[in-house]
Write a structure and sequence with these properties.
Blueprint lengths: L16 H15 L6 H8 L3 H7 L4 H13 L12 H18 L4 H6 L3 H17 L4 H24 L12 H16 L1
Helix pairs in contact: 1-2, 1-4, 2-3, 5-7, 5-8, 5-9, 7-8, 8-9
Protein name: TetR family transcriptional regulator
Keywords: DNA-binding, Transcription, Transcription regulation
InterPro entries: Homeodomain-like_sf (IPR009057), HTH-type_TetR-like_transc_reg (IPR050109), HTH_TetR (IPR001647), Repressor_TetR_C (IPR004111), Tet_transcr_reg_TetR-rel_C_sf (IPR036271)
């Protein structure tokens, strides 16, 4: 089937990795990860699915890596934030948790996909904040991985709605997240 250009085609932004990633994220957020196909993505972008491969030569594998990197990347560099190192890390952790919860369909990819570039950049940034706060290099490396694992793990439990402590009342996820984060940060220094 030859796709006829739509009337809105002239008003549409050119195809780019960013536009492809945003459209894929909308599909995952709205329909779930299992519904993300290159054909469905092409339909959402109003292009032939093959046009996507021009920007993503590795296809869906590259797209999935891009989704992980997109969700992992923060709105601000942890090095540029003002405040104590603990405040900077609290802000980063809260922002990252919010992105994971907002894009819960990508969370399984964050947990299972091997994306060393995204992980290395995040851990390096966290380690730098810790080192600037006076934490020794060896401890900074462990604390950075612990913090990253805590945020991802907490978001995963939150998305599942797990009440792992057997509480017979609703879990206050914000309070639980903050309390756990405080424990980690108090042990890091």
């Amino acid at each position: 089937m030859v796709r006829q250009p739509s009337i809105n085609a002239q008003n549409r932004a050119p195809l780019s990795i960013e536009r492809i990633t945003e459209a894929a994220l909308q599909i995952v957020d709205g329909q779930g990860l299992g519904r993300l196909t290159m054909r469905r993505l092409g339909d959402a972008l109003e292009v032939e699915a093959m046009a996507i491969y021009h920007h993503l030569p590795r296809g869906k594998e590259q797209l999935l890596d891009g989704l992980v990197a997109h969700v992992a990347s923060g709105p601000a560099d942890t090095g540029a934030a003002a405040g104590s190192w603990r405040d900077v890390l609290r802000s980063w952790a809260g922002d990252y948790r919010a992105r994971l919860l907002a894009h819960a369909g990508v969370l399984p990819l964050v947990v299972t996909r091997r994306n060393p570039a995204a992980l290395a950049a995040t851990v390096a940034s966290l380690r730098e904040v810790l080192r600037r706060g006076g934490v020794r290099e060896e401890s900074a490396a462990v604390a950075a991985h612990t913090l990253l694992g805590y945020v991802i793990g907490h978001a995963a439990l939150e998305v599942r709605g797990t009440e792992e402590d057997g509480a017979d009342r609703a879990v206050d996820w914000d309070a639980r997240f903050t309390a756990g984060l405080d424990l980690i940060l108090s042990g890091a220094g």
